[in-house]
Amino acid sequence: MQQALENGSGESSRYSATLSERTYNYALRLEDGRVLRISAGDFTMISVLRTLAKPLILIVVTVVLLSLFLASKLTRSIVRPINQLDPEHPDKAKIYTELTPLLDRLSSQSGQIDEQIRELRRKQQEFAAITENMQEGFLILDRDTNVLSYNTSALRLLGADDAVLGQSVLKLNASRSFRHAVERSIAGEHYERTMNHDDCHYHLIANPVHQEEEIIGAVLIILDVTEKDQRENLRREFTANVSHELKTPLTSISGFAEIILSGLAKPEDITHFASNIYAEAQRLITLVGDIIKLSQMDENSIPVGKEPVDLREIADSVRERLAHEAAKKHITLAVHGSHETVSGVPQILDEMVLNLCDNAIKYNVEGGRVDITVSRDPRGAVFLSVADTGIGIPQSDRERVFERFYRVDKSHSKEIGGTGLGLSIVKHGAAYHGATLALESELDKGTTITMTF
User: Fold this and answer.
1) Looking at the structure, do residues 338 and 265 belong to the same domain, yes or no?
2) In terms of domains, do 316 and 430 share one?
3) Which of 164, 269, 275, 343 matches a 20 to 30 Å C-alpha distance to 248?
């Protein structure tokens, strides 16, 4: 303005840091002496942006919020059918055609998974059914001796009431031998050991379980070998008894024959010696015959088939054949009951009744009584019982009287003879016919043995 007053015109420029722009001013003196000034700003990009910043930010925020709202709504509409998809039946979903290949794949995989699950369950049920029906004890352990699986036979054989999966197997049985077997198997060794518990004998087999050359646990099998050991003992006893029973008559026969052969026997004694040799030979024949019968029944190889047999007729036949023996001791031998028929082998049934009655006479008292009774109950079971008034059987011997060569009164048995196999033949004959035996006895009063068919 001053330059215009003095020189007729003037100009200037100034930069504003606040507005980020330069301002240009121009002044001109008019003819009447007044001064005209004009001013113009030199706008930069920064100034323009600064000017537009607020509306731009407002527009962007509005657009973003609107986009988020629309995206959320659109996403929900897209995801809702997927969230409502039934994983069990993805093929039944009403959804976008673009996802059909994926749903088909999911449906196929779901079917495969279901089939695998059913197969696993079936195998698990089979495994449980097999192990639960095993007479042997079965235990699976991890490397820390914790129980992963077991069956009830294992608890029974170990004398445990219950087991908890995940607890140490040593809590079921803390015996030293059992602990040693578990530790050896976890260490990677195959181990077998015999254990004794409550008069029973068990055979323990312990094996490590390997996975990629690493021991991950062990499997224990417990076998009850009590009956096997008992059979082995009976076999040894039977062998010893047979040897003894054969040796005794053979020794007598050899002795009498040697006396006759040497000429030491007087002519009048030869008949006596020959009679003894004949008696011992008959005893041998009877013994061998009884052993053959037992062997045939053991092997179920009886050469004669079963047929309807009248037990009353067999009882009457036995009474007639033993009447003479009973009369020697003034024993009354009587048959009671009705004519009842069972399916069996006549020769074996006859031998069974004959042995029962023969024992009842031999071990009876002078002037005693033997009663054979045949009957049938309302349920259809047939009974044949032989009751005597003899010496009776002690309680301690009742479980063993049916064993081979077992004698209650050995000194008395030698006097009355017999092979010691009579009641054993009765026991095996009953088993062959599917019958059961029941024994009742009282010392000095008598014994009753009943066969139930």
Assistant:
1) no
2) yes
3) 269
d(CA 407, CA 245): 13
What's the pLDDT score for residue 95?
Answer: 62
Structure tokens belonging to residue 433:
């016919």
Question: Residues 314, 444: one domain?
Answer: yes
Structural domain of residue 23, as residue ranges? 2-42
Query: Could you give the CA distance from residue 431 to residue 298 in angstroms, rounded to a whole number?
Result: 9
137/235 Cα distance (integer angstroms)? 27
Domain co-membership, 363 together with 415? yes
Q: Are 167 and 155 in contact (CB under 8 A)?
A: no
Contact present, 405 and 237 (Cβ < 8 Å): yes
As to burial, measured by CB atoms within 10 angstroms (0-12 exposed, 13-18 middle, 19+ buried), residue 309 is: buried
User: Distance between CA atoms of 85 and 82, rounded to whole angstroms?
Assistant: 5
Within a 13 Å sphere around the CA of 35, how many CA atoms are in the beta-carbon half? 15
**313-333 tens-digit pLDDT:** 999 999 998 999 899 999 999
Q: Indicate whether 360 belongs to any domain.
A: yes
Question: CA 101, CA 120: separation in Å to the nearest integer?
Answer: 29
- Is 251 inside any structural domain? yes
Give tens-digit pLDDT for 196-248.
Answer: 777 788 888 999 998 888 899 999 988 888 778 777 776 776 677 667 667 77
In the listed set 193, 224, 255, which residue is the last one of a domain according to the structure?
224
Say which residues have a Cβ less than 8 Å from residue 153's Cβ, sequence separation at least 6.
134, 135, 136, 137, 138, 222
Same domain flag for 315 and 433: yes
Confidence at residue 417, expressed as pLDDT on a 0 to 100 scale: 55
Tell me what pLDDT residue 200 has. Answer: 80
Is the separation of the CB atoms in 317 and 350 below 8 Å? yes
Strand partners, 175: none
Could you give the CA distance from residue 59 to residue 442 in angstroms, rounded to a whole number? 116
Which ranges of the chain have pLDDT less than 50? Answer: none
Contact (Cβ atoms closer than 8 angstroms) between residue 367 and residue 389 = no
CA atoms lying within 13 Å on the CB side of residue 95: 22
Give the number of domains in the chain. Answer: 4
Measured between alpha carbons, how far is 417 from 283 in angstroms, rounded to an integer?
9
